[in-house]
């Protein structure tokens, strides 16, 4: 067998394989002889059918089988000979040869990239923050805001009041679809309506009617309305002010605390501290992974990227409303994310291999315990994880990634950046 190798674009390789035609003929003859032992044809006893008739009857089928078998076996031999690590199946094409004594084909394939890890050079900014009393008080106020009740008042509407309204939108002298509604509760200052609508109702009294001359934003979501002038005729039915619930034991009980307000505050602080810890960890991990990619330019196999795109498409479809699962989702919607995931996966694996990083079983246990702590019977949750290999493997992978983050951080220039809980959690 003769094998030659060419490099294509990126990670593409082209194997040219040549086999002696006599090897094909030998295998065809051998298989035809096997068929001949049991083949039945009119006028001949089993095992006595002439070879020429066997070739006429079965030759084409056997030749195709032999070709397939020889391609499969010789391809594997060629991979070993050229020391190639393929990604996915090859594209096999027959190759024309001037020498009729040669059976030839080409195999086009992608190979795994050879990774030489570069030195990590760059900065990682580590957020430094703690949960303070004001953070807890602010969270309490948010929770009180979730339990607001509205008390009708006989005064002019002010910012943060709720008005109940009927309204009708008019454009070019006619009401338009979707521009009218009745008994709509609207909190003034919530920015739920287009600019000028809510501010135009400040000072209105229950029973009052107002006409608002406004304009839809240029980037309004309904294209036919974007940038157009509009008139809203608004009837104010009711004005109500917000009543916050008292911060008492009854309020605490609504949020799962049967031991009063102080216990509620303690639970809130603990949850916020856990969230802060996870936010800092996630911020560091993102920066460490960005730095790992930045320092290691890498070609990623198209086959692996395609697999990752399919996985991301399926994840997105699973979150779509019922009936939308067949929606066509374009490749370029996921390509960048898929390339990053594949590249990171290859780099993480190489870091683990080159640095002989061993899984920290104690960190695995600690990670599971932290997750289980939020349940009523944490020990049962821990037992479940260790009894379920799939879920345990998922935690182990996360811990290994965390160990790689530690490896990057040891080499990077880490700079502490003072911040606070509100700033660190602002994106949510």
Give structural notes.
With 428 residues, the chain is α+β, with helices and mostly antiparallel strands. It folds into three domains: 2-111, Alpha-Beta Plaits (2-Layer Sandwich), CATH 3.30.70; 148-243, Chitinase A, domain 3 (Roll); 251-424, Trigger factor, domain 2 (Orthogonal Bundle), CATH 1.10.3120. The protein has helices spanning 21-36, 51-82, 133-145, 249-254, 261-295, 302-319, 335-354, 361-372, 378-387, 389-411, 421-424; strands at 2-7, 12-20, 86-94, 102-111, 123-128, 149-152, 162-171, 174-187, 209-215, 229-243, 413-418. Strand 7 and strand 8 (174-187) form a beta hairpin. The longest helix has 35 residues, at 261-295. The model has no long low-confidence stretch (mean pLDDT 90).
Précis, in short:
With 428 residues, the protein is an alpha+beta fold.
Features:
Trigger factor; alpha+beta; 428 residues; Trigger factor, domain 2; Alpha-Beta Plaits; chaperone; 3 domains; Chitinase A, domain 3
Structural class: alpha+beta
> Percent range for helical residues?
40-55%
Name the overall outline: elongated
Q: What's the CATH class label of the largest domain? A: Mainly Alpha
- Rg (CA only): 35 Å
Give average pLDDT, whole number: 90
CATH fold topology of the largest domain = Trigger factor, domain 2
**Cα end-to-end separation:** 62 Å
How many strands, which pairing sense, and closed or not: the largest β-sheet? 5 strands, antiparallel
Count up the helices.
11
Could you give the order of the helices and strands?
A: EEHHEEEHEEEEEHHHHHHHEH
CATH architectural group of the largest domain = Orthogonal Bundle
Content of β-strand? 15-25%
Strand runs, count: 11
Count of the separate structural domains = 3
Which regions contain 5 or more consecutive residues with pLDDT less than 50?
none
């Amino acid at each position: 067998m003769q094998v030659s190798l060419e490099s294509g674009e990126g990670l593409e390789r082209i194997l040219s394989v040549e086999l002696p035609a006599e090897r094909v003929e030998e295998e065809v003859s051998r298989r035809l002889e096997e068929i001949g032992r049991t083949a039945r044809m009119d006028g001949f006893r089993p095992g006595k059918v002439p070879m020429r008739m066997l070739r006429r009857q079965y030759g084409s089928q056997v030749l195709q089988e032999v070709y397939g078998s020889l391609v499969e076996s010789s391809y594997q031999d060629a991979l070993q000979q050229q020391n190639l690590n393929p990604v996915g199946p090859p594209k096999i094409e027959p190759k024309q040869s001037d020498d009729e004594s040669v059976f030839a084909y080409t195999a086009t394939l992608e190979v795994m990239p050879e990774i030489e890890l570069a030195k990590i050079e760059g900065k990682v900014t580590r957020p430094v923050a703690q949960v303070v009393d004001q953070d807890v008080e602010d969270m309490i106020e948010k929770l009180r805001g979730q339990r607001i009740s509205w008390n009708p008042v006989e005064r002019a509407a002010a910012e943060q009041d709720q008005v109940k309204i009927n309204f009708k939108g008019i454009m070019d002298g006619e009401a338009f679809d979707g521009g009218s509604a009745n008994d709509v509760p609207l909190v003034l200052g919530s920015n739920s309506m287009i600019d000028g609508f809510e501010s135009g109702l400040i000072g209105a009294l229950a029973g009052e009617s107002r006409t608002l001359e406004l304009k839809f934003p240029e980037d309004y979501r309904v294209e036919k309305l974007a940038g157009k002038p509009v008139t809203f005729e608004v009837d104010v039915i009711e004005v109500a002010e917000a009543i916050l619930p008292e911060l008492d034991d009854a309020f605490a009980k609504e949020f799962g605390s049967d031991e009063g307000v102080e216990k509620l505050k303690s639970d809130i602080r603990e949850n916020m501290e856990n969230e802060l810890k996870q936010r800092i960890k996630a911020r560091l991990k993102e920066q460490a992974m960005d730095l790992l990619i930045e320092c290691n330019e890498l070609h990623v196999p198209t086959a692996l990227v395609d697999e990752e795109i399919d996985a991301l498409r399926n994840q997105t479809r699973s979150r779509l409303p019922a009936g939308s699962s067949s929606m066509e989702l374009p490749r370029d919607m996921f390509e960048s994310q898929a390339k990053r995931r594949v590249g990171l996966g290859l780099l993480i694996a190489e870091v683990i291999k080159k640095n002989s990083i061993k899984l920290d079983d104690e960190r695995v246990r600690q990670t599971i315990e932290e997750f289980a702590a939020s349940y009523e019977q944490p020990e049962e949750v821990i037992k479940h994880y260790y009894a379920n290999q799939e879920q345990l493997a998922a935690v182990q992978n996360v811990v290994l990634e965390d160990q790689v983050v530690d490896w990057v951080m040891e080499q990077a220039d880490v700079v502490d950046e003072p911040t606070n809980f509100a700033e660190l959690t602002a994106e949510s």
